[in-house]
């Protein structure tokens, strides 16, 4: 059974409210994590507690239990020279580091003559997440 300390391998498909698939590993390597270690979204981890190998579960997480709501303060304007030349276009994705050295995904939201507007919110912030998960192995 899925319980704290167990290494769990899962197949999953993540869909959004519009029905689009945001991510899936079906047909590829399963995602392996240790239950109770906070390696996956805590609400998803809680939903998988007690499942057995070959069990499947549909889990819906509101933004507050997924990647959070969109924080307008995480949309910032920076000088053009702080963005690499090849990434100065709307939709470009970059990775920055915060004060603790953690990697943060950054998306270019707007390009102006004198500045670039970047969004530091997680790309799935504000989204309701619909997971279809199958437990494939427990160690």
Plain-language structure description:
This protein is mainly β and 139 residues long. It folds into two domains: 7-67 and 125-138, Chitinase A, domain 3, CATH 3.10.50.40; 72-119, Thrombin, subunit H. The chain has one helix and nine strands; from the N terminus they run βββαββββββ. The protein has one helix spanning 42-48, and strands spanning 7-15, 21-24, 31-34, 56-61, 75-79, 93-97, 103-111, 115-119, 129-138. Strands 1, 2, 3, 4 and 9 form a five-stranded antiparallel beta sheet that branches. A hairpin with a 5-residue loop joins strand 6 and strand 7. It is elongated, with a radius of gyration of 18 Å.
Helix content: under 10%
Total beta strand runs: 9
Structural class: mainly beta
- Percent strand equals 35-45%
Look at the structure and give the mean pLDDT: 94
Q: In short, what is this structure?
A:
With 139 residues, this protein is mainly beta.
Topology:
Elements: E1 7-15, E2 21-24, E3 31-34, H1 42-48, E4 56-61, E5 75-79, E6 93-97, E7 103-111, E8 115-119, E9 129-138
Antiparallel strand pairs: 1-2, 1-3, 1-9, 4-9, 5-8, 6-7, 7-8
Based on the model shown, name its key terms.
mainly beta, Thrombin, subunit H, 1 helix, 2 domains, four-stranded antiparallel β-sheet, Chitinase A, domain 3, 41% strand, five-stranded antiparallel β-sheet, 139 residues
